[in-house]
Design brief:
The structure is a homodimer. Chain A is α/β, with parallel strands linked by helices. Chain A contains 13 helices and 12 strands. Chain A has a 6-stranded parallel beta sheet, sandwiched between helices. A 6-stranded mixed beta sheet of chain A has the order 7-6-8-9-10-12, sandwiched between helices. Chains A and B meet through helix 4, helix 5, strand 2, helix 6 and helix 10 of A and helix 4, helix 5, strand 2, helix 6 and helix 10 of B. Chain A binds a DNA duplex through helix 2 and helix 4.
Chain lengths: 352, 352
DNA sequence: TTGAAAGCGCTAACAT
DNA sequence: ATGTTAGCGCTTTCAA
C-alpha cells in the first residue's frame, strides 16, 4: 500500500499539500498542483490509511449496532435499514453485535467500541436496566436507543427512538373490539422490557375504554432465553396450547409481536382451533412474513425505514455537534387489516 | 482516556514494560513490577487504543461480513452464528454490509476494509461473477465465501464453504419421488447464482434416477430485485398462481429455498389449492420459521452453526498464517420431514 | 529484567 | 500557495 508520502513524492509536493487535497482544503491551491496530486493519487491507487487518520483525529467513520439477535427477522429488518442509511447517507460502516440480551455482552461491546474509538452506538431493544448504558456514555459514547422509552423524569444522555407502543397495542385491541370481541387477551413472553410494559398498558386502556376491563387478561409464558427469535415462536406455540385448553379463553388476542403471533397461529392449528373462526389474533410489527401466514396476519405496522433514518441521523448528528441534546422520538404505528380477525362466533361468545 | 504513558508513570516503569505486560511478554519480569503495572492499569481503567496498536502492527481484531440483505432471515441466521463465533471464540468484531447483490457495493465494501486495515472478509451468497473478488484479494484481503463453489479448475485465492447444494436438491426431489410423485417441478427465482445452478442439477439428477427426467421441469419467475427477502416470497406467490392455473402442473415441487416456499404456500392457498392434498412442497434451508407454516414445511436443513464455525476459523486461521492454502469445504444437508408432502391424490395423478 | 527511542501514516498548526 | 514538523498511542528492536 502506498502512503501519503509516496503520493507527495510522485506529485513533487509536500505531504501537507496532499493532506490538504484529501481533506478538501483546496480553495487557494494552484490548479496545476491540484491536478498533479490527483493524478498521483489515482496512479498509485492511493487510499488514506484510516487507522492513521483515526489515531490523529480521534474519529473513525463507524457506528456500533447492538441487537439481541440478528436472527430475529424484525431486528434483521431494522438492522438492514440502519446499515443502509448509515452507509449511503453518511458514509459510515457499522459494527454489529448480538447481545442475547446479556448485560456483560453489552458492556463488552461498549468497551470495544471505546477502544476502537468508535463514538456512536445504536442499541436495539435492550432490557429495562440502563445503568451500564449511562456509564458507557460517560466513557464518551454517543448512544441512541431503539424501542425503549426514556425513564420518565430522569435526564438522560441517550436518544430514544421508538414506536408508540402504547398506541400500537391500543390500536390492536381496539380493532378486536370493533369486531365485537368482548373477551380479550394480551399474549406476551415473560421477560420484562419497557416496550412490553407499555403495550400492556395500551391493551388495558383500550379494554377499559370499551368497558371490558374485567374480561381483559394478560397471558404470559416464560421463554428459555430472552433474545427472542425461534424462542419467541416457541413460547407462542406453548401458550396457544394453554389457551386452547382453557374453556374461558378470550375470543380475541393481541400478540406481543408478529413472531409470537406466528407461534400462536401454529399452536392453535395444532390444538384444533381455527383462526379467525374460533379465535382472532392481531400481531405487532408488520414483518413481511406476516402477509404469508395462513391466515394472513392482521398486524400493527411499525414505520421502520423512517425510524432507522432518524436513529442514524441522531447518532451522526450528535457526534458532529456535542451541543445537541439527547431527546425522544415517538413514531406512530398503523393497522394492517388482513384475515386473522373476524367477528367472534356464537359459541365462542357464549363460552366467554 | 488514559494512555500507556499514564500507566507507565503511575507504575514507575517505562512504556515498553507496560507494553510487554499488555502483550503477555512477562516470563522474565519481576513479580513485583508486574503487580505494579497491573495495579496501575486497573486503577486508571486503562484500555489500549486499538487505532494506535493497529497503526503500529497493521492488524485489527475485526472481520468484514457481506450479505445480500440482513433482512433475509436465512442470512440473519448465518450472520448471527458467524458474529457469535468470531466474537466468542476469536475475539473479533464484525463489520456488516448489505450488498443487495450489487457489485459496486461489494467493491466499495472491500475498499473500505482495506482502508481500515481489516484483512479478513466473509462474503455470503454473491453472484457468479467473481472477478472483483480476486482483485480484492490481490489488495490483501483474506476472503472466505459462503454458498458459492470454487470455479472448477481455476486455482482460487478464496476459501469456499458451502452446503452440497446438488445433494440438497437431490434429497428434496428424492423425497417427493419416494412419496410417489411422478411429475416434478423445481421452482426458482430467475437470478443466476452458483448455488441455484447446482440445485437444478441435483433436481434433474434425482428425476433422471427415477426415470422421470421427461416430466421434471424448472419453473422460474423473475424477481424485481435480486437480494431476496420479501421479494423472494413475492416471486413464490406469483409463481404459485401460475402453477395453479396450469392444468399439467407437477404434483410435487422443490422450492429454491424456504422463503420461496413460504410464498408458494401462501399463493397456493390463495389459488384454492391445498398443500399437500393438491400439491406437495419441499423447501431448502431449514429456517426455524418453516416449522410454523400451515402446513409445516418439509425442508432440507443446512448445518448452519457448523458452517459458520468453519467459515470463521478459516478467515482467522489464514490471516494468522498466510501459508495456509485456500480450500473448499462442503457440508451435507439433511431432510426434515413435516407435513407439506403427501402421496399425490388420484386426480392429481391423472391430470399429470 | 528494564528502558530509550524510532517509527507506523496521517493531520494541522505554524512557518515561509 | 506550499512546506516543515510535532505528535496521535502504541510496538519492538536494541541497548543497558
Amino acid at each position: 500500500m502506498s502512503t501519503i508520502a509516496d503520493v507527495a513524492a510522485r506529485a513533487s509536493v509536500s505531504v501537507s499539500t496532499v493532506s490538504n487535497v484529501l481533506n478538501g482544503r483546496v480553495e487557494r491551491m494552484g490548479a496545476e498542483t491540484l491536478a498533479r496530486v490527483h493524478q498521483a493519487i489515482s496512479a498509485l491507487d492511493y487510499r488514506p490509511n484510516r487507522a492513521a487518520q483515526q489515531l490523529k483525529t480521534g474519529r473513525t467513520p463507524m457506528l456500533g449496532l447492538l441487537v439481541p439477535s440478528i436472527a430475529n427477522p424484525m431486528y434483521g429488518y431494522i438492522a438492514r435499514e440502519i446499515e443502509t442509511s448509515a452507509q449511503e447517507r453518511h458514509g459510515h460502516r457499522v459494527v454489529l453485535g448480538n447481545t442475547y440480551r446479556n448485560k456483560d455482552k453489552e458492556t463488552g461491546f461498549f468497551e470495544d467500541l471505546v477502544a476502537h474509538q468508535i463514538r456512536g452506538v445504536i442499541v436495539i431493544s435492550s432490557l429495562v436496566d440502563e445503568r451500564h448504558f449511562e456509564s458507557a456514555v460517560r466513557r464518551g459514547l454517543v448512544m441512541v436507543s431503539y424501542d425503549r422509552r426514556a425513564t420518565p423524569g430522569s435526564a438522560t444522555a441517550i436518544d430514544h427512538v421508538s414506536v408508540d407502543n402504547f398506541e400500537a397495542a391500543r390500536m390492536a385491541t381496539a380493532h378486536l373490539v370493533a369486531y365485537g370481541h368482548r373477551s380479550l387477551g394480551f399474549v406476551t413472553a415473560s421477560g420484562r422490557t419497557m416496550s412490553r410494559d407499555e403495550k400492556m398498558r395500551g391493551f388495558f386502556a383500550a379494554a377499559e375504554q370499551a368497558g371490558l376491563r374485567a374480561s381483559a387478561h394478560i397471558i404470559d409464558g416464560s421463554a428459555q432465553s430472552q433474545f427472542g427469535d425461534s424462542e419467541m415462536a416457541e413460547v407462542g406455540m406453548q401458550l396457544a396450547a394453554r389457551i386452547a385448553a382453557d374453556r374461558t379463553r378470550p375470543t380475541g388476542v393481541v400478540a406481543l409481536n408478529d413472531l409470537l403471533a406466528f407461534g400462536l397461529l401454529a399452536g392453535f392449528r395444532e390444538a384444533g382451533l381455527s383462526v379467525p373462526e374460533d379465535i382472532s389474533i392481531v400481531g405487532i410489527d408488520g414483518l413481511f412474513l406476516s402477509a404469508l401466514t395462513n391466515p394472513p396476519l392482521s398486524t400493527i405496522r411499525l414505520p421502520v425505514p423512517q425510524m432507522a433514518r432518524t436513529i442514524v441521523e441522531r447518532v451522526i448528528g450528535r457526534m458532529a455537534d456535542p451541543a445537541i441534546k439527547p431527546s425522544e422520538f415517538l413514531f406512530t404505528p398503523s393497522l394492517i387489516e388482513r384475515a386473522s380477525v373476524a367477528r367472534p362466533s356464537k359459541s365462542a361468545r357464549l363460552r366467554a
